[in-house]
Write a structure and sequence with these properties.
Blueprint (H helix, E strand, L loop, with lengths): L3 H7 L1 H16 L6 H5 L2 H16 L10 H13 L4 H21 L7 H33 L5
């Protein structure tokens, strides 16, 4: 039976490269190295795949494991000059890359539970990335004495 986790695992490199290209072309604040652009996304993808596999095996998906990765991603994106909207859009690009992969494999339909797990993982990571990005922004403005956003 078709599994989003199996598909993501089998095409992990292609999925990551597509996302990397999208970030480089549309979201990055300027030229950055591949490690700077990649940041915690490979680990995030591994955790998403693991959550999907756990659900397939009848276990709790443990989507909370992506939250620290989002937190770290938000900090790194702040330090490398991304703006907050780019951080949000790059997570959206990754979701689109996953769905494109599913569609290209000829599997237009995926189980509702897989969609829920994907959404939970993305929402958790994105919420923590945004929260930490904003904390970093606020801290910088407090230290510089300039007003916040």
């Amino acid at each position: 039976m078709f599994s989003v986790a199996d598909l993501m695992e089998a095409h992990h490199a292609r999925l990551f490269q597509r996302w990397l290209e999208q970030v480089r072309l549309h979201h990055a604040p300027g030229p950055l190295s591949e490690p700077e652009l990649a940041n915690h996304i490979p680990d995030f993808l591994r955790e998403v795949i693991a959550a999907l596999h756990r659900e397939e095996e009848g276990e709790a998906p443990k989507t909370h494991r992506v939250a620290p990765l989002g937190w770290e991603h938000g900090e790194q994106r702040f330090r490398t000059g991304f703006d907050l909207s780019a951080v949000v859009r790059e997570y959206g690009s990754l979701q689109d890359c996953i769905l494109d992969l599913v569609e290209e494999a000829g599997h237009g339909l995926i189980r509702v539970e897989e969609v829920r797990i994907l959404e939970q993982c993305f929402n958790r990571a994105l919420a923590d990335a945004v929260a930490h990005f904003l904390r970093m922004h606020e801290r910088e403005h407090q230290l510089s004495g300039s007003p916040g956003p």
